[in-house]
């Protein structure tokens, strides 16, 4: 695991503050570089973790029907602008040969994947591919809906706009009925 260079981040933040015309020695800003460095270390801790690790914990259960964990909250940082995006992930799979994992493992995989400079499309694919590789289910389907601050705070400035990405693997790839079933469950309150 590579350590985060907090000192380097602190220096960079100080340089940014000065570059935008701020006085980095001003009372309210003196500790800002340290706070930002600690925040980045936390926000990007997923860089040093592999979401597949969570799926090493398996159980055998007589169940080969849908498993869906929906409304998993997450936040990430857009790798294009280093501003946040956040939303909900919905993760589904159909176990093969009774191989299931703990429900919290699905949420942990979302969290780990999101905690790095990221694209929403990549988060969606990474989670589905990790499930397929480690659990060998009949299929996996991941839907992510998120609001991107790069569209809210800057550029087009459209708060409330949501981006939805979906990835289908296995039986979900060619079965619109199965995908529709997931979407109907996601819509349920």
Automatic annotation (TrEMBL):
Cellular component GO terms, alphabetical: cytoplasm
Domain of life according to the entry: Bacteria
Binding site for Zn(2+): 78, 81, 150
InterPro entries for this protein: GTP-CH-I_C/QueF, GTP-CH-I_N, GTP_CycHdrlase_I, GTP_CycHdrlase_I_CS, GTP_CycHdrlase_I_dom
Keyword Translocase among record annotations: no
Enzyme class: hydrolase
Annotated GO MF terms: GTP binding; GTP cyclohydrolase I activity; zinc ion binding
Reactions performed catalytically: GTP + H2O = 7,8-dihydroneopterin 3'-triphosphate + formate + H(+)
NCBIfam families the UniProt entry points to: folE, PRK09347.1-2, PRK09347.1-3
Oligomer and partners: Homopolymer.
Family stated for the protein in its record: Belongs to the GTP cyclohydrolase I family.
Protein name: GTP cyclohydrolase 1
